[in-house]
Every structure is written in C-alpha cells, then in structure tokens.
Design brief:
Blueprint: H1 10-27, H2 39-49, H3 54-67, H4 71-76, H5 79-86, H6 93-109, H7 117-121, H8 128-139, H9 148-157, H10 167-180, H11 186-199, H12 218-221, E1 238-249, E2 252-257, E3 268-269, E4 272-274, H13 283-295, E5 298-312, E6 315-328, E7 339-342, H14 354-377
Parallel strand pairs: 1-6
Antiparallel strand pairs: 1-2, 1-4, 2-3, 2-7, 5-6
The structure holds iron/sulfur cluster (SF4).
C-alpha cells in the first residue's frame, strides 16, 4: 500500500498544480471549445456538456454556433428554431433557459456576457459551476468550479467517505478548490482538473497507475478509490407502455406540441398516450379514448408501424406506434395543446422528441420506397 501523502499544505498544492499542468500539456484532448476564450462559446459548451458525453456534444456545439453565432442571434431566434438545433441532446430545459438568458443578456447587459459572478448567476440556467467555468475560462477570473468530474476527483484526493452532496462536504470542497487555484491561467487549470477527472480519475475504474498525482492522493494511499465517492441510492427504473398514432388525413399528418407539464415541453410529438392492454386489440380502445382526450379527434386505429424502446429519466418506455385514420374531422372538444396538420416532408422543420423523430424517419423511408415503386410501375 502506498504511504500516506502529506496534508494538503502549500507545498502539496504547488506540486499538485505543477504535475497537473505538465500532464494536461501532454494529455489534453483537442476539443472545439478549448480553442477559444469566447465567453459565449464557453457558455454554450458548458450547458451542452451537462449530463451529456463529450463525443455527443461536439457536432451539436459546432452546428449550434453556426446557426446562432452570437448571443444576440440566439436571443433573436424563435424558441422552436433553438429547440430544433437542440433536438436529440435531451434535457430541453437547458435550451429554453439558455434562450431566455440570451434575451436577458441583450436586454440588460447590451449583449455582453457579464463578468460579475452575481450577475451571471442571476441568469436562467447559470449556477455556481457554470458561472465559475465561464468566468475562469473566458476571463481568467480566480473562480473555482465543481462539477461531476471534479467532485469525484476532489473527494478521492481528500479521501472523503461522507456523502458528497451534503452541505458540510460541499462547503469543504468549494473552499479546497478555491485554495487550490493558481494565480494565473485559472481557466486552463480548471479545465485540466476536469480533464483529469474525465480521463484518469473515472467513476468505475480510476487509472491510478497512470495518474500524475497518485502519490498526492489520500484515497489511493488508503486504497479507497473504488468506494469513493459513496454510491448514491440506485435508481429504480420503471417500465411503461405508451402508444402513438400517425393520423393521416388528405395527405397530411397530425402532430401536437407538448405542454408545460409534459416531458418535452415546447417540442412536437405524434399524439401519444399511456396504455396497459399491450399486444391485444383493446389497446385500440385506450388509444382512441386517449387521442380524443388529447386532440378532440376521433380516430380508427390501423396497423402497427413499429415499436420503439427508449429511456427518459427513470422510465424505460416501450412505444407502440400505429397508423390511424380520422373518423370525423370535426369535433366540439378543444385539443389540450396546439395541434397541426403537416405534410410528411414538413416534419423536418419541427423540433420533435427523439422517439417521434425515429417514427418520422421510418415514415419518410416508407414513403421513399413506395414512391420509387410507383415510378417503376409507370
Ligand atoms: S490516484 Fe487514483 S483515485 Fe487518486 S486522483 Fe489519481 S486516479 Fe483518482
């Protein structure tokens, strides 16, 4: 077992900074948001990286900045356009909050991202972590950051066995991270910390043998790295069945916008309802009733189109997708949220839930096959 490192005094901190910096110079990944100190770009990357893997974020980040090259252009865009560019990244609240924050930056700060922590934190979706990242990386302000990777890293460096979410431990970690900051190149240091957490001090199997600060780490000395941070209670997943219908009428398809209390607020979806009678014909009755409640329309359920399995938060959803015909286009019942009849080719313009996009893609490929068959027949 390695001997215990010295306590985290000034000499410890100097050695830690030097080793981390040398390692980062060699090992840092070349990521698009690391080639800039533009505060807007840093902000977009930090919001996208919350809950999302780096590899997924890269193409979204590039497309988003191409569509909205400045805060003002983001603020002036419609929410539907912003959501369309976020489609597939999930956690759409992040996009809506960024859009709202961009509007406030234009209205209250003349389009410039504030350099003051309290003004930044006052904006929608910007908490202490995001503010610290923007301020340190874009403006080289002496601001610490604590996010999933650095929380795990710090907990192991200090061999914290208590719950890292408790106020006591959080306060300890913030003050430790604050003391650890160098005087200069703070943004680079913060990025190096996150990179070490992300590449070496990983959640399940930290690569302590390759770690540049292994002999400074208390968890490594005590061989506690596999039990720190303490595991959170396991999420218990819930299986649910839902059904969606593609209602066609005069060459158009019905879609509806998800309301404020729904999973995908602001996005569009095919009418979908929870069902219990999976695999049996009574699913039709549940579907017909549910679609009427949602849209005010009476439909006749047709053949099954596809089944999609997907996960949203703790739910593991099996989505049964059916074709349907409109029985009566008129109804006295008002739809719960906005509905629209669109041509299949127009679906590309709407921000859809991921499962709705899969269904839309399936419809598109079916139509392409049918139209090429028609052409061959002529
Ligand atoms: S020695 Fe292991 S546990 Fe400690 S910081 Fe490095 S990778 Fe993490």
């Amino acid at each position: 077992m390695p001997s215990e490192p010295p306590l985290t005094d000034a000499a410890w901190r100097r050695t830690f900074r030097r080793r981390l910096r040398n390692w980062y110079d060699r090992a840092a990944r070349d990521l698009p948001w690391r080639r800039t100190n533009n505060a807007y770009h840093i902000w977009v990357s930090e919001i996208m990286l919350q809950q999302t893997q780096v590899a997924t974020v890269v193409p979204y980040f590039e497309r988003f900045l191409k569509a909205f090259p400045s805060v003002a252009q983001l603020a002036n865009a419609g929410e539907q356009t912003v959501l369309r560019h976020w489609e597939g990244l999930g956690y759409y609240r992040r996009a809506r909050q960024m859009h709202a924050a961009a509007k406030r930056i234009v209205a209250e700060h003349r389009g410039k991202i504030p350099r003051e922590a309290d003004l930044l934190r006052d904006l929608p979706g910007i908490g202490p972590y995001t503010a610290g990242a923007i301020l340190s990386i874009a403006f080289d302000a002496r601001e610490p950051i604590l996010e999933a990777n650095t929380i795990r890293l710090v907990a192991r460096l200090l061999a914290i066995t208590e719950d890292v979410g408790s106020t006591k431990v959080q306060n300890l970690m913030w003050s430790f991270s604050d003391e650890l900051l160098p005087r200069k190149e703070v943004g680079l240091f913060n990025q190096a910390l996150m990179e070490l957490g992300s590449l070496i001090c990983t959640p399940k199997s930290p690569s302590c043998d390759a770690c540049p600060v292994a002999d400074l780490c208390l968890a490594n000395a005590k061989q506690l790295q596999h039990t720190i941070p303490a595991l959170k209670q396991k999420i218990s997943f819930e299986k649910v069945n839902e059904a969606a219908v593609v209602i066609r009428h005069r060459g158009q398809i019905l879609i509806r916008q998800c309301g404020s209390k729904e999973r995908w607020e602001g996005l569009w979806d095919f009418p979908r309802v929870p069902v219990t009678s999976v695999g049996k014909r009574p699913i039709d009755n549940e579907l017909v009733r549910g679609v009427f409640e949602l849209t005010g329309l009476t439909v006749r359920v047709g053949p099954r189109l596809m089944t999609i399995k997907h996960g949203v938060t703790r739910f593991r959803i099996t989505l049964h997708c059916f074709a349907a015909e409109l029985v009566s286009p008129r109804s006295d019942k008002v739809a719960q949220t906005e509905t629209r009849w669109v041509k299949p080719g127009e679906l590309v313009q709407f921000p859809l839930s991921s499962s709705a996009r899969k269904l839309a893609e399936r419809l598109k490929s079916k139509e392409t096959i049918l139209s090429s068959r028609r052409k061959q027949a002529v």
